[in-house]
Design brief:
With 142 residues, this protein is α+β, with helices and mostly antiparallel strands. It has one domain: Transposase IS200-like (Alpha-Beta Plaits), CATH 3.30.70.1290. The chain is 37% helix and 23% strand. It contains four helices and six strands, in the order E-E-E-H-E-E-H-H-E-H. The protein has helices spanning 38-54, 81-99, 101-107, 128-136; strands spanning 12-13, 18-19, 21-27, 58-65, 68-75, 119-123. The strands form two sheets. Strands 4-5-3-6 form a four-stranded antiparallel beta sheet, with helices on one face. A two-stranded antiparallel ribbon has the order 1-2. Strand 1 (12-13) and strand 2 (18-19) form a beta hairpin. The radius of gyration is 19 Å and the shape is elongated.
Length: 142
């Protein structure tokens, strides 16, 4: 008897696409100020999980330190990553400032919570060298 095939949870299917897109994102607060406490990190994760859900994405991992946060997001191809990042940063900044005004105002001044820049890397699947070799070895039409 052959083992039962188990679907890969990282592979999603849409009407006309099969995909597995993951991004590693890193956000830092304005001026890289150490604003995050454990309580703020927990709330930030909750907010970002909700935002991802609104986009049909999934926040797979979240963690951070006093001066930055890391996210691993599984997202569909219809989502522009820059738009998702904008919402993640915008919604979290607004809610964290509303819910923790005394703390956030002590570390951050002005209207901004996050630095305007961010780090994004695609992750998952085969290493680039393996994909490159696979493509190079495809048979060319005669």
């Amino acid at each position: 008897m052959s083992p039962r095939w188990e679907p890969n949870p990282d592979i999603r299917r849409g009407r006309s696409v099969v995909h597995s897109l993951h991004a590693h994102l890193v956000f830092i607060p304005r001026y890289r100020r150490g604003v995050f406490t454990d309580e703020l990190l927990v709330r930030c994760e909750e907010i970002m999980r909700d935002v991802c859900g609104d986009f049909g994405a999934e926040l797979r991992e979240f963690n951070g330190e006093a001066d930055h946060v890391h996210l691993l997001v599984h997202y569909p191809p219809k989502v522009a990553l820059a738009r998702l990042v904008g919402s993640l940063k915008g919604v979290s900044a607004r809610r964290l400032r509303q819910e923790f005004p005394a703390h956030t105002n002590r570390y951050l001044w002005g209207e901004h919570f996050w630095s305007p820049s961010y780090f994004a890397a695609s992750v998952g699947g085969a290493p680039l060298a393996v994909v490159k070799e696979y493509i190079e070895n495809q048979k060319r039409p005669s």
